[in-house]
Amino acid sequence: MIQLGVNIDHVATLREARYRDRAEVDRGEPDPVRAAHEAELGGADGITVHLREDRRHIQDRDVELLRRLVKVKLNLEMAPTDEMVGIACRLRPHTAMLVPEGRQEVTTEGGLDVAGQRSMMRDAVGRLKEAGMIVSAFIDPDQGQAEAASEVGFDVCEIHTGPYADTFGACGGDMRRSELIDAIRDVADAGGRARALGMRFNAGHALNYHNTPPIAGLEGVEELHIGHAIVSRAAYVGMRTAVAEMKRLMHGAVGVIGR
Known about the structure:
Layout: E1 3-7, H1 9-18, H2 32-41, E2 46-50, H3 60-69, E3 73-78, H4 82-91, E4 95-98, H5 118-130, E5 134-139, H6 143-152, E6 156-160, H7 162-171, H8 178-196, E7 200-204, H9 212-216, E8 223-226, H10 228-237, H11 239-251
Helix pairs in contact: 2-3, 2-11, 5-6, 6-8, 7-8, 10-11
């Protein structure tokens, strides 16, 4: 059954809007560690956080506490830098997901160029796997990138669903629009290539309560990572309910490819 990894970065974003003095983080609200517990109670199968180089939201303290307290899978998103690989190897989350990182972006805006950085990726993946982690690549819906991810040793490809989400919004979710079907098929084909190469097929980015079902219904997709939409919904109904609502949508999804 498809699983849901809940990204709680933006709980920390809200905290940082008020408590910017690092000495105040422990007493700052809302606490992403408490949010992780609420997400677990709502049915989250995993918790995702992105420890960025500039520490704009999640802090080292958060990751350390989450590693000790999370009862489900902990997925650490990170740039493939020596600093971040070192932190991951020390804390040993269940999964390390390598993503590109830009200082000016609001959130991760594109997939990792594995094909163009094979040597660096092979080294980072090797160190992470040696420390006992499952290692995931966040890639654009591109079969060539999936092939490169397999070559350097990744265990998982998380297919970037941002382009699909943009197309869904532009089309109003109209499944009779060929461009929307093409966008879904791009995700499906990249995920299918990852599976054919022996990797797991996950997906995520810009998924919400409207556009998630077509992705959740794809053949072979194992896990979706969703953050902003769930945290936004939680502001109205609470984290437990927001997570439970998303899981119900995912489990009721029916594929649209091949109809």
